[in-house]
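Troubleshooting log. The previous structure file for this entry was overwritten by mistake, so regenerating from the original sequence record. Sequence copied from the archived sheet and checked twice against the printout by T.R.
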Amino acid sequence: MNTNKQDRRILPVILIVILALALSMLPGSLAAADDDAVSDEVVVKVAPGHTVAGINATYGSTTLRPLLGSRAIYLLRLAPASDPDQVLEAMEADRRLVYAEPNLISDVFEANPHKSYSLSTPLWLGTEPQPYDYQYAASMLELSAAHRISSGAGTVVALLDSGVQSAHPQLRTRIAAGGYDFVEDDANPADVGNGFDDDADGAVDEAVGHGTHVAGIVRLVAPAAKIMPLRVLDSDGRGNAFLAAEAFLHAAEQGADVINASFGVSNESELMEDVVEDVTEDHGVVVVGAAGNAGSTVKQYPAAGEDVLAVGSVGPTGTRSVFTNHGPWVPVFAPGEEIVSTFPANGYAAWSGTSMAAPFVAGQAALLRGLDSRLTPEQMSARIVTTAKPLVGGLTGAAVIDIPASLNASDPEEDDNDGDADD
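Regenerated output below.
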């Protein structure tokens, strides 16, 4: 009898725990705010005819700052005594707002054990460039043949990441104007640590070198392209959606042709959709995103967004990496295992992850834009996807990029126009 009573007392507790876990997995839920969002911040888009002052008056919130430009999008801080879940629920029903959402936390997949199937760390290889120049990815993607067609001259690739060591021997002549540190709010987006465990995960500055490594991959693929470093992640690999949104718009307004986002947020974001649509449709920028390292079909954003080209990882044989996310939302794959690239200070390291795969595609887009500046983001993405080779070992619809084939391809519209001219 005592055992049955004890079971009856425990059962409600178990049900509460299960319910809490279920709520934490709901898209857009603030139930996991401590882990997935900045706890006292929300992002709102104010409907025409209304003001953010009116919103703040209703909810006791304060405006931290508006998003760049006149977009009526604001980052708000909630009142100290407010319940974030309750406030957000009320804001979502408020007709004065187009949308309201938590300020989602973004992470580098390779530096976050919660988002990685098998967490990898960079392997320092010294300061000699030979491993970088002669690695499997370069031969697998036939970069020498691609560079006879295009080197990416005249293009700019913006990197939303942890910053870049701009003085690295491989990068110092390839840094574009317009770089910015959105974390520290200054014009020096350096890839350096602060010596603290800011995210309390037991590791210090675990993301240092991530942005420099990504930059070196773009440099390998598109040697004549310029790189615009935009620091949106701290030295532990953490940032937030509002910082990323600011960087997306800044990149487009500063003349970027391609944006690489080797980070992710766990939930779909209307803010991200807003800014990505802006940079692609209004500025003609190609956006490339890393699919994530959870080894699952769970979507990561911005990669899974409608206007973003999501990239998964393969190894030297062209088979899908065990850690890569995949699914219909990931149309292309690129080398992402033990990729050798630039690393602070003035050296090279091998690192694995979809963060390493994505910049191969960003570099490919730069080669395409360098070859023909008239190509739209849709045309470039279509070329990258339709010319890719079938992935070894299955996954219907998934393919490994073929850079020379994409450069030699023509668009259906070009063929139609040529045919009309001949008639």
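The chain has two domains: 27-104, 109-412. Archived copy saved in two places this time.
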